[in-house]
Sequence to fold (413 residues):
Amino acid sequence: MDGYDPNALRVEKACEAIRACLKPIEGIEKVATRSALGRILAEDIVPAIDVPAHDNSAMDGYALRAADLAASGDTTLKEAGTALAGKAFGGTMGAGECVRVMTGAVMPKGADLVVIQEIVKASEGKVVIPAGQKKGQNVRYAGEDLKTGVPVLRAGHALRPADIGLIASLGIAEVMVKRRLRVAFFSTGDELASIGSPLGEGQVYDSNRYTLHGMLTRMGVEILDMGVVKDDPARLEAALRTAAANADVIITSGGVSVGEADFIKAMMAKLGEVLFWKIAMRPGRPMAFGRIGAHGNAAYLFGLPGNPVAVMVTFYQFVRDALQYLSGRTGDYSQPLLQVPSAAALRKVPGRTEYQRGILFNEGGWKVRLTGQQGSGVLRSMSEANCFIVLEHDRANIAAGEPVSVQLFEGLT
Ligand code: AMP
Ligand code: MG
Fold:
């Protein structure tokens, strides 16, 4: 790798390095269409029918032939019958005739436009059509949504609600998807207390496992929660072996900072290949990445820092992308960076990428401001935020009103 320096690795370099090591999982399974939300397609979806299957009316009104319309002024036609959604007009529509149609009704043979009911005068079987109607108006054509034989979704696509509906519109009840990625995770630290028990002298509650559980649940992976592991080489090794034997990916928090990393380095070297990085970012500087094996299985390891905000930042900037790639997702699923003016001046030191916690708000236009304290242990800053303010590697201090990159926490689908 060009410019690879494990002691001041740029965020983009770390992303590239991780990506270069990953190989997507191969297992696939069949699931009911309704249960496929968030799953990664393992097959192309190719329509066996047109959607809609027939030309049909887009409105309530009258179907008729453009050729029957007078060159100018009103046209009077004879009403020959009715077509409802799901109940076609059985007869034939002769010259000078029209058929009453409801939205979704199959177009009567010969009809090539629909006039909405609001503008016609109908009485005693006669229908008066005003001038100004055009051939093809208010008609939905067979195959205008989906066409037989033309693939609509490709293998590698992550299914969203619209896709689930689309697959259903083809009458497909089951789809082949990638199996779920298995992710094992645990917290490390002698100071960690479990929630629901009293807090001892010098202890902190283990919150990282809960934020990780939440982030992993949202990603739809299979979760293996291995609890808290003490800062003890033998226990850590045992936990890593169990995780490597049972999961595709292992995520740990804590224990990768300078003071702690040494004994872990030695122990991990026995299990596989793990790199200890200092990434030029804030928060989230120390991080380990590698691959370890046990009992004939191997798993990727992400050793995230212990600070609660750093865990979330490194998860979103490195792990999220890796999990999606490993799950078999293809295409571009990077998070967009929007340019939004900063409501106030921001301090920034060039030479590292910063992920400040921001609130995007609308006050005569969208702007972004910081949540309060930005310390990497201040989890409230993530809870209050609705976005990251991403201050790129080379940027220096930002003046009020200057645009900054914003990465949204929530998406619509
Ligand atoms: P470490 O990376 O292990 O040196 O931890 C850095 C900081 O994060 C320390 O203040 C730890 O107490 C804190 N920390 C580590 N793990 C957790 C956890 N699971 N939940 C909450 N805080 C943690
Ligand atoms: Mg620790």
Q: What stands out?
A: Residues 287 and 304 are 5 Å apart (CA to CA). The chain has a mean pLDDT of 95. Residues 188-189, 254-255, 260, 306 surround magnesium ion (ligand 2) (CB under 6 Å).
